[in-house]
Amino acid sequence: MFNANEILETINMISEENLDIRTITMGISLRDCASDSGKTARQKIYEKIVRYAHNLVKTGEDIERDFGIPIINKRISVTPIAIVAESSDEENYASFARVLDDAAKAVGVNFIGGFSALVHKGYTRGDRLLIKAIPEALSETERVCASVNVATTKAGINMDAVKEMGHIIKECAERSRDKGASACSKLVVFANVPEDNPFMAGAFHGTGEPECVINVGVSGPGVVANALKQLDGADFGTIAETIKKTAFKITRMGQLVAQEASSRLKVPFGIVDLSLAPTPAIGDSVARILEAMGLEKCGAHGTTAALALLNDAVKKGGVMASSYVGGLSGAFIPVSEDAGMIEAAISGALTIEKLEAMTCVCSVGLDMIAIPGDTPASTISAIIADEAAIGVVNSKTTAVRIIPVPGMKEGDVVEYGGLFGRAPIMSVNPFSSEKFIDRGGRIPAPLQSLKN
Amino acid sequence: MKAVITVIGRDKIGIIASVTGVLAKANVNILDISQTIMQNIFSMIMLVDISKMNCEFSELSDQLKQTAQELGVDIRFQREEIFTSMHRI
Q1: A225 & A107 share domain
Q2: Contact B71, B9 (CB under 8 A)
Q3: Helices marked H in A141-235 — which ranges?
Q4: What b-and-e string marks burial along A17-53, b requiring 16 or more CB atoms within 10 Å of the CB?
Q5: Residue among A4, A62, A66 minimizing CB distance to B34
């Protein structure tokens, strides 16, 4: 029998501290759906997704009820569509996004990821067409998420793709200007993208993955923040130890749900993603954890060190709790989705430059950051290039999900509602990067020794 | 298969009777029970055996929800594994 404290601790984590399973994501390979006819390919894609995932949402809800743990999202990731679509004669891939959207609606998932292309070393015909279709695809569908990998540690940075993505992001913003450029919130530009990430918007089903797989993302920044609040004045060893223990408990729950979902759906279990993912809900914030360590506001000097400690301790605690860990696995710092980050950005404590420094020590990158609508495409590309450089040199995943909101300037706030929250417009460096971005070509892969 | 039932709320007459009545009807055996009252807040934790339960998990879950509403307390009915996974290695 348990003692009462253990049971009440678990219940308290769920009901008071927003502990939840953030997502059960089913990865589905669409490699066998390629066809020389776009129409046949789309039909195969729709049928396969519905066949594999028709029970996903119901199973998620059953597990939620049986164990009393909220499972916030049920999602699907698929093979990068550039790979699936490029055998077809189709010129406009937005039609593939529409079929993904239809399939997502048919099975009841709120997002489907994989409108993606991997172009870190160069483009194929399919990659080129897919990237061209992203603005139309994201502004005319509701649930489709897109991602493009522009750099890896082994290949370097494809600066042609970096340049193009600056324009694509601007076009996405323009096409969804009446919704606060919301299309941009569904597009992630990656360096070193993981192939088994269950979190949107960057999820896709990598080419090394099995036919179908269940990946689970856990969350619980509130639990960690509350644990730290009781440690007034304790030293960093104690703080790291507490985070490790808490992360262990959170991850065990993720592991249980992943195994249960995998056995009920008869689909192999892939990984548990150990990320601390915030939401705009009160108390579900990563910024508050950093502040609980003693920083007046997230973004103050010391934030990078605090985040490094947090990120490392979460991994150390989580790794032992799960048999397979993967995905992004680190603390997320999406500005618009984290009440503490929003507050810090509005008060001026948190700037893009500080966020960039923070991405050196945590997953995932400059995430959900709103910037003035008149920011030039070349500046956005340069921001992407900086993030990619951090990822490539440090052999880690970095990403950019940035939103140039048309008609808005520094100091304004754009409201998205729901999980996407609200985003204060942050200032960007006004000096031009245009000539730098115009060069094109590829930044060579970095040296992997002589590390300093 | 085992489950944990927790009841938390303002103390009043008949909480245990109502909850155990529902369990008896569903053929659920109570293995352990602990109860305290702190500052008028009633809290009860029960470990039950649901392997011979004569209805679906979801049905009993709904019935307990209804009982909770009638009593004005909070009742949770959760499979035991969520606690074992979190607190036992």
Answers
A1: no
A2: yes
A3: 159-175, 221-229
A4: bbbbbbbbbbbbbbeebbbeebeebbebbbebbeebb
A5: A4
| C-alpha span between A180 and A373 (Å, rounded) | 10
Asked if residue B16 lies in contact with residue B73, where contact means CB atoms within 8 angstroms, the answer is no
Q: pLDDT tens across A227-275, in order?
A: 898 888 899 999 999 999 999 999 999 999 999 999 999 999 999 998 8
Name residue, tokens 């743990």. A69
Entry pTM:
0.90
A87 Cβ contact list (under 8 Å, min separation 6): A34, A35, A36, A41
Interchain proximity B76–A11, CB inside 8 Å = yes
CATH of B2-87 given 3.40.47.40, 3.40.50.720, 3.40.50.300, 3.30.70.260: 3.30.70.260
**Residue B28 carries which DSSP code?**
P
Q: Which residues of chain A have a CB within 8 Å of the CB of B58? A: 62, 65
Looking at residue A232, its pLDDT comes to 86
Helices (H), A182-302: 221-229, 236-265, 286-292
Give the span between the Cα atoms of A49 and A27, in whole angstroms. Answer: 10
Closest partner residue to B81 (CB to CB) among A4, A62, A67 is: A67
CA distance A291 to A340: 9
ipTM of the complex model: 0.83
